[in-house]
Write a structure and sequence with these properties.
Blueprint: H1 2-10, H2 12-46, E1 57-58, H3 69-75, E2 79-80, H4 82-125, H5 129-142
Antiparallel strand pairs: 1-2
Helix pairs in contact: 2-4
Length: 143
């Protein structure tokens, strides 16, 4: 059973998946930073400096005003945090677009490399049988 487990782990697909998960986690941190540190401030600038995260209302509260969502949560009241939800949707759309652009770029690079490799293989392969027969036919017709 231990040998079987070692064989399973040593297979290329499992190792590729593990590397993909590790790189995906690191890439997630980069994209989250891109959204939180670069894109969201620009969105806030266009929206007049409004921070949607602190848009909420208290459900069934005692009428106490809370200055921020954090303060309401610390007080233990039920807060309907609609601004935070909208920011999560915006963040998702931005992250999905960035991942789409990255995958698109990688696919174009792969296609270009495959086309270049195919062209090199065709050039190195020489003439086909039909091309050789055509050349022989032309030569015979000239004589």
């Amino acid at each position: 059973m231990l040998k079987e487990f070692k064989d399973f782990i040593a297979k290329g697909n499992v190792m590729d998946m593990a590397v993909g998960i590790i790189i995906g986690a690191a890439f997630t941190a980069i994209v989250k930073s891109l959204v939180a540190d670069l894109i969201n401030p620009i969105i806030g600038l266009f929206m007049g400096g409004i921070d949607l995260v602190n848009n909420f209302f208290v459900i069934g509260g005692d009428g106490t005003e809370y200055g921020s969502l954090e303060a309401a949560r610390e007080a233990g009241v039920a807060a309907f945090a609609w601004g935070s939800f909208i920011m999560a949707i915006i963040n998702f759309l931005i992250i999905a677009f960035v991942v789409f652009m990255l995958v698109r770029f990688v696919n174009k690079a792969k296609d270009a490399a495959a086309a270049e490799e195919e062209a090199v293989e065709e050039a190195a392969a020489g003439p086909t049988d039909n091309e050789l027969l055509g050349d022989i036919l032309k030569t015979l017709k000239k004589k």
